[in-house]
Design goal:
The structure is a single chain. The protein is mainly α. Among the domains are: about 90 residues, no CATH class; about 30 residues, no CATH class. The chain contains 6 helices and no strands. Helix 2 crosses helix 4. InterPro entries: DUF1003 (IPR010406). Keywords: Membrane, Transmembrane, Transmembrane helix. This is DUF1003 domain-containing protein.
Length: about 190
């Protein structure tokens, strides 16, 4: 009976999750970073020069070396096999690196799009505020409007004879200040 309790039951889920776990060193992110580094290295002149030197040495050794020292006696079939093996691993690694770059580009594009939307909203808000300020300022009295109204009022008072100061005295006083009631120039306020 004790042996039966130790065996896992098929009709119940296992406790503790998966039995096999990947080591923490080989996470998807570290593998992706390594593949990107490898893909970048394959696009450098160092890799191309090293590969050229390797193939040239292989060809020279297996062509000019004595028959018993050659390690590829089958007309460079091993070289072809090694290059095919290298290409079969390089292609998926390069595709993985391209996919990761496309993911990064997609995230950057989404961030740019959201930033552009915020900028557009801010610009529209500022445009509305400027329009509101223009409307508010349109109702404000300007300096020329106030001067014109004061001139009209002064002319009206002169016509009625209620002005104690003559217009010529005001214009002559200019920057010296407004004239007093008796017509003499006063101090500016």
């Amino acid at each position: 009976m004790a042996e039966r309790e130790r065996r896992p039951r098929i009709d119940q889920p296992r406790e503790g999750g998966r039995r096999w776990s990947t080591p923490t060193v080989l996470t998807q992110e570290t593998f992706g970073v390594a593949s990107e580094k490898f893909a970048r290295f394959m696009g450098t002149p160092y890799f191309l020069i090293a590969m050229t030197v390797f193939v040239a040495l292989w060809l020279v050794w297996n062509t000019l070396a004595p028959e018993r020292l050659r390690f590829d006696p089958y007309a460079f079939i091993f070289l072809t096999l090694m290059l095919s093996l290298q290409a079969s691993y390089a292609a998926p690694l390069i595709l993985l690196a391209q996919n990761r770059q496309a993911d990064r580009d997609r995230v950057a594009l989404e961030q740019d799009r959201s930033r552009d939307e915020r900028n557009l909203a801010d610009t529209e808000y500022l445009t509305r505020e400027v329009a509101a300020l223009r409307l508010a300022l349109r109702d404000q009295a300007t300096r020329d409007f106030v001067r014109g109204e004061l001139r009209d009022l002064l002319e009206e008072l002169e016509e009625r004879g209620l002005v104690l100061v003559r217009r010529e005295d005001l214009e002559r006083a200019g920057d010296a200040g407004a004239p007093t009631v008796d017509g003499t120039p006063g101090t500016p306020t």
